[in-house]
Amino acid sequence: MAQLKPILDEDLDRVGVFLHREMNGAISPEQWAGAFRHPWMQDKPDNGMMLEQQGEIVGVLAAIYSERIFDGKQQRICNLTSWRVQEAHSAMSLALLKALVRRPDYTVLGTTPNEMVCRIYKLLGFELVPLERWVLRATPFAIGGQVLTGERARDALSGDAQRAWDDHGQFPWLHQLVLTDPSGAQPCHIIWRRSRWKRLPAATVLHLDHPESFMQNQGAWGRYLFWRYGIFSSHVEKRWLQRPQFVIGEEDYGWAAGLKSTELTADRLTYLYTEQMALPLE
Questions:
Q1: Out of the domains of life, which is the source (predicted)?
Q2: Radius of gyration over alpha carbons of the chain, in Å?
């Protein structure tokens, strides 16, 4: 019978090989392992849980841990990711999940749930977060607002926002910028990745930290995407924005996440410090 064990740092190379072979071969073993090595929580308890039989990994539910500040209070977040168990050991799949959701002092967040995982989350008391997006058109001739990139963007941020910029700057599949204007509006830090919509280049937003500033300077965002990247649409989750300008469609893809928390609500959480950032997901 397979043994349930925590994934320690010294196990990550083997876990990377397992996930590359069993879950997604387009992501290299090194990328898989590297996703869990970031120092986003200094005293993280583990990197998830695994099943091991005779020295061989036969199942994994990995975790990315982070510490973030909300309303002046530190929150400990466990992002569940990459749940894969070999069929011969599937009866023990739930043991992996239960071992990670028992901790009362953590917000637990799973950001890529399929239909079966959503049913399990619901049974365990998770809130299911809809994946609903606004589709915003390009605004090549919009006036006003300003987009900052590179060091100018980083320098416009401070505190936790600047730390988030630094922590996510290492991923080549992500793009970061700051949206602002000369009037001194609160800088809005945006992280996005390339995608496609109706066979055309698009941008999917993974994080924005000041919705009011985004709404105020939305024209500059659409203008920048069009002229810099030839992007015709951007896609922003509805839980982060009230109805913005320049909407040309809406998307409903089922569920974005499962959330179990006594402190945080879904509208407060973007994809910072999660698998959506740390892995080159399509």
A1: Bacteria
A2: 20
Confidence of residue 176 (pLDDT cuts 50, 70, 90): very high
**CA-closest candidate to residue 206, choices 107, 131, 128:** 131
Is residue 185 predicted with pLDDT exceeding 80?
A: no
38 bridge partner residues? none
Task: Tell me how crowded residue 44 is: count the other CB atoms within 10 A of its CB.
Answer: 18
pLDDT of residue 183: 80
Question: Coil, strand, or helix at residue 151?
Answer: helix
Take residue 95 and report the two structure tokens written for it.
């043991």
E-state strands within 121-246: 127-137, 146-148, 175-180, 188-197, 200-208, 233-237
**Domains by residue range for the chain, with CATH:** 3-105 (3.40.630.30), 133-252 (3.40.630)
DSSP 82-108: EEEE-GGGGGGHHHHHHHHH--TTSEE
Burial of 219 per CB tally in 10 Å (0-12, 13-18, 19+)? middle
Three-state secondary structure call for residue 240: helix
CA distance 256 to 252: 10
For 159, how many CA atoms within 13 A lie in the half-sphere containing its CB? 7
pLDDT band at 216 (very low <50, low <70, confident <90, very high): very high
In whole angstroms, what is the distance from residue 280 CA to residue 58 CA?
24
pTM greater than 0.85: yes
What DSSP state is assigned to residue 2? P
Q: Give residue 181's pLDDT band: very low, low, confident or very high (50, 70, 90).
A: confident
